[in-house]
Amino acid sequence: MSARKSKEFLADLALVAVAVVWGVTFLPMAQALHTNGVFTLLFWRFLLAFFLMVLISLAFVRKIDANSIKYGAILGAFLFAGFAFQTFALKYALSSSVAFITGLNVVFVPFIVFLFFKQKVYIYSFAGAFLSTIGLYFLSSGEFGLGLGELLSVICALAFALQIVFTGIFVKRCELYVLVCMQFLTICALSLICAVVFEGTAMPNFDAEFYKAVIITAVFATVFAFFVQNAMQRYTTPMKTSLIFTLEPVSAGVLGYFVGGERFSALQIGGALVILAGILLSEIGSYYKNKGSF
């Protein structure tokens, strides 16, 4: 195996680890919600992530610019909305179901780009959206109208899609590490305000579920995953990355089934698979439109 192929193989394995870690976060967060509020969990998760990111950034950042602060606050607001709706969704739907629906953010991206920047929406995007809609119908047990958990998950996916679109624009005008730190700090501040207003306090119940959820999500799913994704994508292709990241909802579903005792009906399993097909169609179509290579 050549040195280049060896690096690509190791990069792919690292990205598989990222996708699995992201999928694994859904169940511990859902379990921690039994004894802690949504905004309290988000506050402590991103407080820890912020301090870790600051420590890492000290080795790389030479100056703090106004653009990074301003754009980081905007992106942080999108992320806060995404994580807040996602965490609330975990109160009302299976963690694996929330994970599959959250993956729809890649389907929303081309339509958001069209809405804000008038870029053409290609046929694969419509096909992916159509498949995903059918999948949502099956995932909601074949009923018209989504349950509260599913609806909150869709809003979460939309918020994440907005963050993805505007990150692509803002990152070219900012210092990357400051931008990321500011996003974490914004989520932390908004979560603290909402925890005090809606939950009465930001002090958590320091139980095993709390520690497990915060450490896994802050250390592994936020800081670790961010660095690995950005570092490893230099050695592999966008198409492989998009395919690997479909393992996120799959790993969430496997963990929810074997560890969390969550059960899908045959119809819901079919819906989850159709949603995955819609996500893959959107991602692969986007890749070929940009004339990349596998």
TrEMBL record:
Transmembrane segments: 42-61, 73-92, 98-116, 121-139, 151-171, 176-198, 210-229, 241-260, 266-288
Domain EamA: 11-140, 148-281
Keywords: Cell membrane, Membrane, Transmembrane, Transmembrane helix
Membrane topology of the entry: Multi-pass membrane protein
InterPro entries recorded: Diverse_Substrate_Transporter, EamA_dom, EmrE-like
Cellular component, GO, one term: plasma membrane
Pfam families: EamA
Compartments, as annotated in UniProt: Cell membrane
Primary location: membrane
Full protein name: Membrane protein, putative permease (EamA domain), type 5
Lineage, highest ranks first: Bacteria, Pseudomonadati, Campylobacterota, Epsilonproteobacteria, Campylobacterales
